[in-house]
Amino acid sequence: MSESYYTGRRATPRPEILRKPLQASEIGAPVQEKLPLALRLADQSWARRLLVIACVSLLWEINARVINNTLLFPTFIETTIALFRAIADGVLLERVATSFRILAMGYGAGMLAAAILTGLAAGSRIGADILSTLTAMFNPLPAIALLPLALLWFGLGTGSIVFVVVHSVLWAVALNTHVGFRSVPDAQRMAGQNYGLRGLRYVCLILVPAALPSILSGLKIGWAFAWRTLIAAELVFGVSSGAGGLGWFIFERRNALETADVFAGLMTVILIGLFVESVIFRAVENRTVIRWGMQR
Q1: Among 182, 171, 80, 164, CA closest to 131
Q2: pLDDT less than 70: residues of the chain
Q3: Relative to the CA of 224, which of 12, 26, 242, 279 has its CA 20 to 30 Å away?
Q4: Nearest-angstrom CA–CA distance, 151 and 147
């Protein structure tokens, strides 16, 4: 309470301006009103994705019941039962593990080759010309079209599939990384050069952090290309030492006319793609480019 200047009495504050002091954790926090549950769920990306998946599943079930031929188009419920049965048998998990082992080799080798090419392109004009020329030549070439040559060069084994996976990853990652390097502002480049950064240190400490959104986009595109190329290659030739991958699982079930298992294999391909895209890459983006304010 404070004394009034004119009357000498202690002034009483008006009730409408009496407020509870803010806590330290509340300072700077946005004011959130209690919204209905539907609006709060609509604000969450995972809820919107689940809604899309639910709608697709419902349309799938309705369409399958209208066709009424499980040999041509099984229902969503039948496919789900076949999926859990294949998982319980252990066959599907074994095939997925085989596919991921081959994918890891091809994806890792593709990223390494892309890093070498983009590093050369960032360091010299000749390297940039080499990368742009090779990308223009080989990027439009479908990776699966190289499988016959890969079978001649590397034989009937894992090496052939790894080769086509490397081709599908290399050019997407290299092109996006190179574009990201070229978009780095000159002020950042000069700042790094003024600190005496040259060569590999300049690329790792200046170019890579500044171009990280483009690099992550290239990695996501490369992952999608590699995953679908791997499944397609395994559908053509997927057995190595008696063990095939997920694509070979789909091929085997198609030959046995087990359509529900075929759809279960396709559903597994989709679920793995959703998990990698929405969980793994999203977590990396949240911890890097979104946290640093480089992307919304």
Answers
A1: 171
A2: 1-35, 38, 41-42, 237-243, 293-296
A3: 242
A4: 6
End-to-end alpha carbon distance in the chain? 47
Reduced to 3 states (helix: H, G, I; strand: E, B; else coil), residue 11 is strand
Alpha-carbon dihedral angle through residues 83, 88, 91, 97, given to the nearest 10 degrees: 90
DSSP string, 100-149: HHHHHHHHHHHHHHHHHHHHHHHH-HHHHHHHHHHHHHHTTS-GGGGHHH
- Residue 168 near residue 110, CB atoms below 8 Å: yes
Annotate 12-26 with DSSP letters as a single string. Answer: PPPGGG--PPPPGGG
Domains (range + CATH), the chain: 73-287 (1.10.3720.10)
Residue 241 is predicted with a pLDDT of 44
Residue of 99, 83, 61 lying closest to 265 (CA atoms): 83
pLDDT of residue 271: 92
> What is the per-residue DSSP string for 250-265?
HHHHHHTT-HHHHHHH
3-state secondary structure of 8: coil
